[in-house]
Amino acid sequence: MKKLAFDTKLVHADRKINKPQFGAVHESSNNSVLFEFEDVQDLVDVFQGKKLGHVYSRSSSSSAVSLQNILNELEGGVGAIVFATGMAAISATFLSLLKAGDHIIVSQYLFGNTRSFLATIEGFGISVSYVDVTELSQVQQAHNENTKMVFCETIANPVTQVADLKGIGEWCEANNIIFALDNTMTPSVLLDSKAIKASLLLTSLTKYIGGHGNVLGGVLVDTGLFDWSKYDNIDEIYQVENQQHWGLTQIKKRGLRDMGATLAPQSAHLVSMGLETLTMRLRKTCANAQALAKYLVTHRGVRAVHYPGLDKHPQHERAKSLFKRGYGGILSVELNDSINPHEFLNSLSLVISATHLGDTRTLALPIASTVFYENGPEERRKMGIADSLIRISVGIEDIEDILSDFDSAFAALL
Ligand code: PLP
Q1: How close is the Cα of 226 to the center of ligand 1, in Å?
Q2: Residues flanking ligand 1, CB < 6 Å
C-alpha cells in the first residue's frame, strides 16, 4: 500500500489491504466454519502451511485475517493474530511461548485479571518476579539466566503508573529478552511501540479499538524486532522459512488452534468498524480526561488524582516524551474520607457505574472491591490501590456535561 498517514489508513486500510470481493468497501463477515477445496492437494498444502488459505475457522477465517492485516499495518509489525478477548491474547501468548523452568519479569502494576492469570502459570512451574517497572534498575536486578520475557502495561490500570518503556525496551533488546507490552491504554494513535523496542504488543480490542462496548476481542502484534532464532522455546516444527514469523507461527498453532479462543467473524467486523474512528475518539477522550483531572485535582472533596497528564504525576515527564496525542482516558481518584465512594458513584447521573474502560461513555467503578478484590489488601497496597480508589474511564461526551455531573455529586455529599 502507498504510504498513507495513520488516520487515513484507519478508514482506507480495509479496502486497500484486504481488497474485498465485488468492490466492497469493508471485508464482509464470513461465517463459514469449513472451506471446500477442488483439489485435495490444495487442502493438504494449506494444512501444512505451504499455501495460504483457510481450512477451519478456529485457526483462521477471512474476517479475522482482514482485521489482523489492518491492525498489523497500523502498528508496522510483521504479523498479527486476533483472539476472542484481550485476556485470550495474553494467556495464549504466554502459554505458547513459555515452559516450566522459565522465568519472567512482570510489572507489579497490572490489570487484576492479568495478575490472577500469572498466579495460575506460576502453578505450572514458570517463575515470576513482580517489580516496579517505573524503575529500569528493578527489572535489571530481577534478571537471571532463565529470564525469557519482560511484561508490563504502558499506562497501568488503574493507578496510571508509566513504565520506563524506552529503558526496558533497549535493555530487553540488548539481552535478547522478549519485551511483551500490553498497550490497551495507548493504542498506536498514542504510542509508537516500535520506537520503544517492544517485541510483542498485546491489546484488548474490547477497549479503545472496538470502542463502543458492543464487542470483545484481543490481538497480538509481532513488531518484528525480536530475533526468534535466538529463542530456545520455538519448536523445531515451527522453525521454518522466515525466522521473523517463528513466534507468530507457534502462537497461532498452540495458542489459537490448540487452545481455541478464536475471534468470531462477526466480532472481527464490529471491531473493524469501531477502529475507523479511533483517532477522533481518543483525541476527545484524552482532552476530556485532562480537563476532568484538572478539575478534580483542586477539588476540596478529593485527596488524590492519578493521571499522567498532570504535572505532579510522578512519571509526567516520561509520559510527555512517550505519548503523542495525549495521556489516555483513564484516571483514578481518591476522595476525601468524608465522602463514601459508593454514595458518590450513586450520586452521578450521567456517568455510568460499570466495569469496563475505553468506551465512548464515561464510566466509573470502585476498584478495590471489584476488579482487584481477589488480589487482597497486600497486593493492592503494592499496586498503589487505596480502598477508596475510584477508576474513571473518560468518554467522548461534551466536557461541560461530565464536569457538571461531578459537580452535582459533590454538591449532594459535601
Ligand atoms: N489488559 C488491560 C490493561 C485491561 O484493562 C483489560 C481489561 O480491562 C484487558 C487486558 C483484558 O481485556 P478483555 O476484557 O478484552 O479480555
Answers
A1: 24
A2: 85-87, 111, 114, 153, 157, 182, 184, 204, 206, 216, 218, 357
